[in-house]
Amino acid sequence: MPKWLWLSLMSMLWWGVWGFLVKLGTALMNPQAMQILFVCGMLPPVILALWQAGFRVQRDARGVLYGILNGLLASFGMLAFYAAMTYGKASIVGPVTALFPLFTVAGAVLFLKEKLNKVQAMGIVVALAALAIFSRG
Fold first, then answer.
1. Do 79 and 26 sit in the same domain of this protein?
2. pLDDT at 134 (0 to 100)
3. pTM for the full model?
4. Phi, psi of 57 (to 5 degrees)
């Protein structure tokens, strides 16, 4: 199994469990409290990553900008996700928000000039159909 596939499957597992736990948490707390506690939960992995990097962070200017934008956009996305879970069903909110890679693909095609083959393009069509189906729930 290629390393990227193994890591992708691990990510899928952790995020899948995380999404379920979000629904449990949003039944008890508001989205802002969930976001604060989410950040607290990130501290141990951040400390571990810093330790592994010798407590040195790379400082390429564009890399720093992208890293900060990643955190900012992910945080806004998380707040919206927590609010959606508060008002919607996990069985619908989870799959709909899990289609976020459609924006990644669009960016890769438009700005990085990556090409999609016919099967991948059909996958996008199926994902959009899934979005339409789930949004009726």
1. yes
2. 85
3. 0.85
4. -110, 135
